[in-house]
Amino acid sequence: MKKLHGIVFLVAIILVSCGKGTGRTLTSATGSIYECLVVMNDEPLTQEQVNEVAKLSLVNEASGYTKPIASLYDLVEAIMGADMPCMPQVEPYFRLTQVKTALFDDMLKPTRNILFVDINPQKYTQLKTKVANDYWSTPQAICRVQSPSEEEFVTYWLEHGEEIRDWFVNQEIKRQMKFYRASTNKAARAILQAEGYDMLIPEDYMVIMDTTLAGATTYSLRNPIAVAPDVRLLWCCNNKGSMRRDLVVYSYPYTDENTFTQDYLNAKRDAVLSRVVSASVEGSYMGTEYKVFPPQMRAITVQDDEYATEVRGLWKILDGEAMGGPYVSHTRVDEINQRVISAEVFIYASGQKKRNALRQAEAILYTMELPQEVNQIEDIQISASTK
């Protein structure tokens, strides 16, 4: 797991009219989700730096980013505006807008996400990165990179730019999680709670399947894999408007030490979802795209620094209509009951951009609380009440 090195995390100061401090009221942030304002003066890279960047292949051949990387802002944009992985069409992590430092004024201060790049040898003797939340508006995320030289900034950005981008992504996910806490589907959550864990399933996600899949060997695009032992599965769906969002949560005993490998998780996904997800053509079933954009797996940090295995990929309907879209799954271990729990969201929106919808649905996965975490919260509350 990569960590953000050299960053001083500032305590977020939230000033409300009836709160602490000056009593200043924060305005609502401006801008849309996954948009970022970059405040920096742009300077050309040296030929040596251009050659060094070219070796790193920051932009792949199929990328939507087509400009040559020839300046400091190009370098920032190539990482912050890079293509999201495993999407059916080119969509960037963030849509960026640049403004020179001297032009950053009060009108721009409420912007939702702001990245400052301040290079000044008279002000700084060493490179530092600072982050803050809700400074001029709410919700707001600010990251400031201070560097005494262009050379130090280029070196730092090439090494840590992706981590800064991930920090901004995490701020957006946390905002969405906060939104879900206000309104959830209590019936759907009760089904999970009966199994010992919980998740903030939004109120507009309706339960369409609550079942146990009996153990059987089913077809996988890669390898036949037994669903046995039994798999508990909950499937919820938001099918409002022209875009469909689905959430599937399934669990099974943790018996195989090779469970957390990409081949195993991919095969298990095919085995489980091929049995429950189909289209209008009889005999059709859900599968995974392996040839064009194969799934990508990584370890991530979720609630309270717990770890999860994330898999991103593309789903498709086999033996039926030409249907497909992106999916994201989190897989974790229920340590108390020795179960593997996989939660996945997938999107269907033919001809539409899918980044924002996928990211909003993805935030649901981060709200999962396993039995060991639920019990820990209860223990803390009990201990506090006895003092």
Care to describe what's here?
The protein is α/β, with parallel strands linked by helices and 387 residues long. It is 26% helix and 28% strand. The strands form 4 sheets. Strands 9, 12, 13, 14, 15, 16, 17 and 18 form an 8-stranded antiparallel sheet that branches. It has a 6-stranded mixed sheet with strand order 1-6-8-5-3-4, with helices on one face.
The best one-word shape is globular
Q: Largest beta sheet, briefly?
A: 8 strands, antiparallel
Q: What is the helix content?
A: 25-40%
What are the secondary-structure elements, in order, as H or E? EEEHHEEEEEHHEEEEEHEEEEEHH
Low-confidence stretches: 1-22, 217-222, 377-387
- Arithmetic mean pLDDT: 87
Total helix count? 7
C-alpha Rg (nearest Å): 23 Å
Q: What topology emerges from the helices and strands here?
A:
Layout: E1 7-9, E2 27-28, E3 35-39, H1 47-56, H2 72-80, E4 95-99, E5 113-119, E6 128-133, E7 137-138, E8 141-147, H3 150-181, H4 186-194, E9 206-213, E10 217-218, E11 225-226, E12 231-238, E13 244-253, H5 262-276, E14 285-288, E15 296-301, E16 307-318, E17 324-334, E18 339-348, H6 355-365, H7 371-385
Parallel strand pairs: 1-6, 2-7, 3-4, 3-5, 5-8
Antiparallel strand pairs: 6-8, 9-12, 10-11, 12-13, 13-18, 14-16, 15-16, 16-17, 17-18
